Amino acid sequence: MPASSWCRTTGVRHAASASGRRSTFDSTHGAPYMCGMVSFSVLDLAPVPEGSTPGQALQNSADLAAHTEALGFHRYWMAEHHNMPGIASAATAVALAHVARSTSTIRIGAGGVMLPNHAPLLIAEQFGTLAALHPNRIDLGLGRAPGSDQIAARAMRRNLSGGEDFPQDVIELMSYFQEPAAGQRLQAVPGGGLDVEFWILGSSTYGAQLAAALGLPFAFASHFAPAMMDDALAIYRERFRPSDRLAKPHVMLGLNIFAADTDAEARFLFSSLQQSFLNLRRGRPGKLPRPVEDMDSRLDPMGRAMLADSLAHACVGSPDTVRAKLQIFLQRTGADEIMATANIHDHAARKRSFELFAEIGRPMGALKPATAAGNASGGHPHPAVHA
Fold first, then answer.
1. Contact between 349 and 24 (Cβ < 8 Å)
2. What residue ranges do the domains of the chain occupy?
3. CA 328: distance to chain centroid?
4. Which secondary-structure segment (H or E) carries 23?
5. Mean pLDDT, rounded, of the chain
6. By three-state DSSP, how is residue 97 classified?
7. Beta bridge partners of 108
């Protein structure tokens, strides 16, 4: 099955838009889970575990990308974060270039680039370069948040606008990928005429409104900020305006997936994310902590409430447990795509989690057939990959 044809049930193929640009989205979406049309992808935050380095984290990312490509996942995204010792993907386009070299078919993209930190022309040139090197594989998700604390935001932007120009910046950025007109004085090179798939990211209703107005696909950060998910999805679907890029609403939802052979092992692995999340919320960002036993007994009421709100939809457990939770989530949301993330301290356990998730998703028609490299013996080789 080609990389773009991810629905076995209906045989979805690329649909040509009015502008001739190819879209990976089908114009006949119904209830995705019930008709087997959900697609599974990967969000890699390039976690830096305690005892490791950012360089090793990026080697792990390349290995995980090759591994999940072999398992049949649809996309592999990395995200822009700054001044965070536990995340190695600050230079997102550079990290994606590294990952893209280790893969050949999986879509590669940013989830996302925080556009208020950058001039749109520079982002067009960066992702135009990626698209020139890896044609028809590049996604560009755009967010309005700084992806950092205020100290880092000031260091990057100097002039803090608060994202008021975000809609105009998105439109300007997309314009650089149109075919240059004769005599056009400002161009993105590479960029003009290249195929990059744009997404709007959000953790509130703001992004939903903008994605709907521009006729773009929408990715919601339900993996860490689910409070406004239902409202955002309703607004996006109700207000969506078809565009030459997308005929009908298309939603991707972030979801923490921590799969292991047993529920107890998965909860143990999940404790790293729980600790990391609490450390960040309490102003103590650091590397991804080692997992601990009996995390619940270590939580005070405030910490327990914080995790319950932010990680409410996490699917943690054995394959049967994850499958049951995933089905409930899909039936509730009607998501077209799930972007799974798993900040697991041990790299081998992280790869195993995605293997188990692939086994869950494949009967749903959500994944391309696995290649021989995607079996439990280890995926594509990559030098010196470990936690």
1. no
2. 15-179+186-369
3. 21
4. strand 22-23
5. 86
6. helix
7. 76, 138
In tens, the pLDDT along 168-220 reads: 999 999 999 999 999 899 999 999 999 999 999 999 999 999 999 999 999 99
Question: What's the Cα-to-Cα distance from 90 to each of 60, 93, 149, 232, 302, rounded to whole Å?
Answer: 16, 9, 13, 27, 30
Between the two ends of the chain, the Cα-to-Cα distance in Å is 33
- ∠ CA 179-105-288, rounded to 5°: 105
User: Which band of pLDDT confidence, cut at 50, 70 and 90, is reported for residue 370?
Assistant: confident
CATH 3.30.300.30 fits 15-179+186-369, yes or no: no
Answer for the pair 357, 266: CB distance below 8 angstroms, yes or no: no
Neighbours of 132 (CB within 10 A): 13
pTM over 0.70: yes
Comparison of pLDDT for 374 and 324, the residue scoring more:
324
SS3 assignment, position 156: helix
User: What integer pLDDT is reported at residue 26 of this predicted model?
Assistant: 35
CA-based nearest residue to 113, from 173, 36, 41? 173
Amino acid letter at 83?
N
In sequence order, what DSSP letters do the residues of 303-339 get, joined into one string? HHHHHHHHTTT-EEESHHHHHHHHHHHHHHH--SEEE
The answer to whether 245 and 215 are in contact (CB under 8 A) is: yes
Distance CA 270, CA 196 (A): 34
With contact defined as beta carbons under 8 Å apart, do 352 and 360 qualify?
no
pLDDT tens digits, 234-265: 999 999 999 999 999 999 999 999 999 999 99
